[in-house]
Amino acid sequence: MGKLPANIDYYHSLETLPYLIASLCVEAQQALKGIDSYVVDQSRGRAHAVAGVPTHFTIPLWVIEKHSKDYQLWYVAHEIAHIIDFRTRGISDHSAVFHAILKRICPVSSLKFEVTYMKRAAGRGFTDKPNLEDLI
Ligand SMILES: [Zn+2]
Q1: What is the pLDDT of residue 36?
Q2: 18, 53, 80, 104 - which has most CB atoms within 10 Å?
Q3: Are 92 and 86 in contact (CB under 8 A)?
């Protein structure tokens, strides 16, 4: 699994994150065999891969401390969708392929946060053009 991420919050990594993952669907949970996950005190979460093979993902502490469970589940499902995408294609981005995975594994009540996220990303000049209308 390589080097541990910096600034790990062990309480939320060992308690909150497994609880969130356990409430997602079987596909999401099975995708995490051999994948470590950490809550970290940093600005963004990320799914990590080495040579296209996923290794671990991170969730920022502020997501756990400041947001609703629906938002937390979206954030976790988003990173797991990257893990599944890496497993399937060896790469991951925010393409329509990624969003099809996310739509399968993210609770319906949490999907709206992906639309908000992608609109904000577009405002920052990201060029990904997901089919947002297909998400909801
Ligand atoms: Zn992403």
Answers
A1: 96
A2: 80
A3: yes
Over residues 40-83, the pLDDT tens digits come to: 999 999 999 999 999 999 999 999 999 999 999 999 999 999 99
Domains detected in the chain: 10-135 (3.30.2010.10)
Centre of ligand 1 from the C-alpha of residue 13, in Å = 20
Buried b (16+ CB within 10 A) or exposed e, 36-55: ebbbbebeebebbbeeeebb
What is the pTM (predicted TM-score) of this model? 0.92
Q: Ligand 1 centroid to 114 CA: how many Å?
A: 9
Cα of 96 vs centre of ligand 1, distance in Å, is 12
Closest CA to 49 of 62, 58, 40: 58
Q: In this structure, how many other beta carbons lie within 10 angstroms of the beta carbon of residue 92?
A: 22
